[in-house]
């Protein structure tokens, strides 16, 4: 019993000194408590990361909203495959939005997912209300997935030297968005044996070329 009491006393006297040493010399930075809307490193080397991550988060949240709207209201011959595809896209976009928001937290900055921020900051327009024809759904998403991908590419370039972790995450997000764009584009992609103009889905009118991929020259 005497030895046990001595051991406990030794631990109790050692812990405060150890904790103090860890606080002073530990390798992990600690975020201080603040009531500011955005805390953390607002300038310096991480500023491009903050801008790129927040803008990407805003666009992903906008895509979440518009994808659900289309998922519910797509109409036409391709209703069912588009209904299912849009649900897959919604889940994927939601996953990456969460990862981008958590990366902002990881570098010490709060993420802003408020509705007003999405309205003010997104470059993606609101999806039309009401029932929307399948051809217009394909065109809309093929076009604005491309817009989103181009915007993420700017963030990748801005962060590749100063914050490779953020740059790598944005590359993952871009890869997913490019995949979604391809899945939409493929439904109206011309081939040597069929122009696949989308006119069979669009009352005899070809789907606008804005949905098609950029040329290599661009």
Proper CATH architecture: Up-down Bundle
Helical proportion? 55-70%
How many angstroms does the end-to-end distance come to?
80 Å
**H/E series, N to C?**
HHEHHEHH
Task: Characterize the quaternary organization of these chains.
Answer: single chain
Q: What class would the helix/strand composition place it in?
A: mainly alpha
Give the total of beta strands: 2
CATH superfamily: Ferritin, core subunit, four-helix bundle
Q: Can you give me a brief rundown of this structure?
A:
With 218 residues, the chain is mainly α. It has helices spanning 2-25, 47-73, 79-106, 115-121, 134-159, 164-185; strands spanning 74-75, 132-133. The chain is elongated, with a radius of gyration of 25 Å.
Describe the structure.
The chain is an all-alpha fold. It contains 6 helices and 2 strands; from the N terminus they run ααβααβαα. Helix 2 packs antiparallel against helix 3. The radius of gyration is 25 Å and the shape is elongated.
